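Fresh eyes needed here. Have a critical look at this protein's tokenised backbone.
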Amino acid sequence: MYSLDVNFLKDRPGHQGNQPGPKKPVVIPVGGMTPIYIGAAVAIIFPALLGAGLLYVNSQNANIDEEIAELESKNQELEAKLGDINQKEQEIAAIKTETQALVSVFDQIKPWSAMLQVLRDRIPVRVRIENVKQIAPEVAAEDGSIPNPAGGIEISGSARSFNDVNDFLLSLQQSPFFKSSEGKIVTAELVDGELPQGIPEEVRIKPPKIVKYTIVSQLTDVPASELMRELDQKGARGLVNRIRSLQATGVFQK
């Protein structure tokens, strides 16, 4: 006996509409691919540009480091040269100081030959000089300066009268080699004179009175370079020639 199996649901139109159909392929428009291409290009190009930039920066840093090292080396050379220059300047300053000290010594010299010639020219007829002694410069002041580095002289001898001694002092004060305000008579004493030699003892002669004197006068502190004419006239040509030689080299200011 036969069995009939009928599926009524399959035959219904509504049921048939619910059955899945064949899948359609997805179609992307050509214009819609542009962002993808741009994104891919950016993803590829940006790292490449970043890498190239880093390489360039590193290269520039290396060049800058080399320039800095070169500049530091040159700076060290310049500092060494500057140190040499400073040392030379110190040496030059020391030489100038020594030169000026030597110049000042020459400028303070008052030759004895000139001083004795001054005494011979200015001594009165009735005055005798028995001894001439140099006086050392005065003691330095608190600031280290010496009031009169030239010093002075002490003259002792005899004269016929006190007026003769006074005339001698006034004559010395008029000389450019002495300080007019600092000459003075230290001692002046009337004593018996000495008898001439060869007179017999039995001859009674009373010697005339004479004045024993001592005069002190300070030498001028005017530089010798300003007394060239007077020094030359008094025979101090050696000092005059030295000063002229120093003036020719520019050490002495004329």
